[in-house]
TrEMBL record:
<feature type="region of interest" description="Disordered">
    <location>
        <begin position="323"/>
        <end position="359"/>
    </location>
</feature>
<keyword id="KW-0479">Metal-binding</keyword>
<dbReference type="Pfam" id="PF13765">
    <property type="entry name" value="PRY"/>
</dbReference>
<feature type="compositionally biased region" description="Basic and acidic residues">
    <location>
        <begin position="325"/>
        <end position="359"/>
    </location>
</feature>
<dbReference type="InterPro" id="IPR006574">
    <property type="entry name" value="PRY"/>
</dbReference>
<keyword id="KW-0862">Zinc</keyword>
<dbReference type="InterPro" id="IPR000315">
    <property type="entry name" value="Znf_B-box"/>
</dbReference>
<feature type="compositionally biased region" description="Basic and acidic residues">
    <location>
        <begin position="1"/>
        <end position="14"/>
    </location>
</feature>
<feature type="domain" description="B30.2/SPRY">
    <location>
        <begin position="349"/>
        <end position="545"/>
    </location>
</feature>
<feature type="compositionally biased region" description="Polar residues">
    <location>
        <begin position="18"/>
        <end position="28"/>
    </location>
</feature>
<dbReference type="Pfam" id="PF25600">
    <property type="entry name" value="TRIM_CC"/>
</dbReference>
<dbReference type="InterPro" id="IPR013320">
    <property type="entry name" value="ConA-like_dom_sf"/>
</dbReference>
<feature type="compositionally biased region" description="Basic and acidic residues">
    <location>
        <begin position="29"/>
        <end position="45"/>
    </location>
</feature>
<dbReference type="Pfam" id="PF00622">
    <property type="entry name" value="SPRY"/>
</dbReference>
<dbReference type="GO" id="GO:0005737">
    <property type="term" value="C:cytoplasm"/>
</dbReference>
<protein>
    <recommendedName>
        <fullName>Tripartite motif-containing protein 16</fullName>
    </recommendedName>
</protein>
<feature type="region of interest" description="Disordered">
    <location>
        <begin position="1"/>
        <end position="45"/>
    </location>
</feature>
Length: 565
């Protein structure tokens, strides 16, 4: 490589008999040549506009610069540019289109022109840089490096256009999703208004029915009691009259009158049926008051749980989500690091990733699962929209399918668990159950460990029974000491490699077992059900209200909450 070092310095004398000293040459060019060119160009000078590069040598009204000199590091208008065309010493200077970024072409360390490129350090250098810190580096002229980069420009432009097209497509999709979500929210709000209005009318009708029932019962009971009171008053009056007559009769001396009056005074009074009437202690509404108080507590508990589910369902509505791709820009790299996000995520400490702590925190990641009918064992009967599995002695006539478990009473869920965090809860009853996650590649045919949840390297399982609790993976079982729980919460952080099982009681959660590993394939929730008995369900945080009155009260509570919102 050869470079013309004379081009990199303005202090070094040039071999020319007509050369002027540099400092004098500049001043002469500035003050002597300009007057000679003004008659020719004075009337044609173009005034500078906003954004134009200004001439560095105009002393009064700045004119628009036409060229910039890479050696002088200055910009010239047409008049002051003539010296570069007339003086031999200046004719060798490199002129380019006027630019206002001349300082970017100067080495910040040596204040010399940058005219070479160091491929070793990927930076522009001056002549002093080449002789100093970049000595022995791979250095080429800036023009040569520009030629090489120019060859790559086509590919870069193509990638850039691809990126623009992708961003436009993503913008269009996002715009469409935002509009669709707004429309959906508006439709739902209108539907909510209609439904809750109907519910309010229904509650009002029920309220009126209950009020009418109470008033009717009160009226009937009070009316009957009032009649009894009147009859009792009549009988009391009659009895007092008889009592007075009997006292008078006791003093008579007329035997015939005594005997004749005795029969009428001691005979039936006609009020004998009142003897069967007894006043009970059940005239108080204390029992009703206690029932209403108990109902209030039930409604508050149910509403708290239901509101958690409603909150979780609302948070499941989203427009965008992150994938597993490298979040850093990779358009201009030939080999993007696809594992960046996962590796950076795993290098964080467990508690710095904001793991859920309370049940409400876990419910933010709640996912709705459904059992896959193509994988279920024939002795497992599905119900409630394929969200409940019950083991029965009679075999279900499912169609043949290569993914169906042949020997073990097992079933997989349809949903893929990967990319984001997931949480689900399992209610179970019966003899024993396995609550697991597994790769889809677990074997389905046969009765060996490769087909059984937990007893191979493809699955992780929590075994629950009345007398035992254990965690099973890769043919190894670990006994756990924890009380029996009929509701198990499962938390999966796929990217972080965390799998945790919790005993759930109300809003209380007790950690049963946590696994930290590296998941290499998409996961699926899976279950094994053992023993014939009540069903085990994989419903997400779902409880049925047992009475119509409780349902109506809950609806009223939701309506009140909705009105407050």
């Amino acid at each position: 490589m050869s470079l013309d070092l004379d081009r990199y310095t303005m202090d070094k004398p040039r071999r020319s008999t007509n050369r002027q000293p540099r400092a004098q040459s500049r001043s002469q060019v500035k003050y002597e040549e300009t007057p000679r060119s003004q008659p020719k160009y004075g009337d044609e000078r173009r005034s500078a506009k906003t954004g134009d590069v200004l001439c560095d040598f105009c002393t009064t009204r700045k004119q628009k610069a036409e060229k910039s000199c890479l050696l002088c590091l200055a910009s010239y208008c047409e008049a002051h540019l003539q010296s570069h065309y007339e003086y031999p010493a200046l004719m060798k200077h490199k002129l380019v289109k006027a630019t206002g970024q001349m300082r970017e072409k100067v080495c910040a360390q040596h204040d010399k022109l940058l005219e070479a490129f160091c491929r070793t350090d990927e930076t522009s250098v001056c002549v002093l840089c080449m002789m100093d810190e970049h000595k022995h580096h791979d250095i080429v002229p800036a023009g040569a490096e520009r030629t090489e980069k120019q060859k790559q420009l086509g590919v870069t432009l193509h990638k850039s256009q691809q990126r623009i097209d992708q961003r436009v497509k993503k913008w269009q999709d996002l715009r469409q999703a935002v509009d669709a979500m707004k429309h959906s929210a508006q439709v739902v709000m209108q539907e909510n208004e209609r439904i809750f209005t109907e519910l309010l009318l229904s509650i009002e009708r029920k309220y009126n029915e209950v009020k009418e029932m109470i008033r009717s019962h009160e009226k009937t009971t009070v009316t009957r009691s009032e009649i009894l009171l009147d009859r009792l008053e009549e009988e009391i009056t009659l009895l007092r009259k008889k009592h007075n007559n009997l006292e008078k009769l006791s003093h008579t001396d007329d035997h015939i009158h005594f005997l004749q009056s005795w029969q009428s005074l001691t005979g039936p009074s006609g009020y004998e049926d009142l003897n069967r009437i007894n006043v009970t202690p059940n005239y108080s509404f204390d029992a009703t008051k206690r029932a209403v108080a108990a109902l209030k507590l039930q409604v508050e508990e149910v509403s708290k749980q239901e509101m958690s589910k409603i909150s979780a369902s609302v948070k499941e509505v989203y427009i965008t989500q992150e994938d597993d791709k490298d979040p850093r820009d990779s358009f201009y790299r030939d080999e993007p690091r696809e594992e960046y996000r996962r590796e950076e995520y795993r290098r964080e400490e467990p508690r710095t990733r904001d793991e859920p702590r309370t049940r409400d925190d876990f419910l933010e990641y709640a996912c709705q699962l459904s059992l896959d009918v193509n994988t279920v064992h024939p002795n497992l009967h599905l119900s409630e929209g394929n969200r409940t599995a019950t083991m029965r002695s009679e075999r279900k006539n499912y169609p043949d399918h290569p993914e169906r478990f042949e020997h073990w009473q097992q079933v997989l869920c349809r949903e893929t668990l990967t990319g984001t965090r997931s949480y689900w809860e399992v209610d179970w009853k019966g003899t024993e159950i396995d609550i697991a996650v597994t790769y889809k590649g677990i074997r389905r045919k046969g009765n060996d460990n490769d087909c059984s949840l937990g007893w191979n390297s493809k699955s992780w399982s929590l075994y629950c029974s009345d007398s035992k609790l254990s965690f099973v993976h890769n043919n190894k079982s670990t006994d756990l000491s924890a009380p029996r729980s009929s509701r198990i919460g499962v938390y999966l952080d796929y990217i972080g490699g965390t799998l945790a099982f919790y005993a759930v009681s109300g809003n209380n959660m007790q950690l049963l077992h946590r696994v930290q590993t590296n998941f290499t394939e998409p996961l699926y929730a899976a279950f094994s059900v053992w023993g014939f008995g009540p069903p085990s369900s994989c419903k997400r945080n779902e409880r049925q209200l047992k009475t119509l009155f409780l349902k109506l009260t809950l609806i009223l509570l939701f309506y009140i909450l909705f009105r407050r919102l």
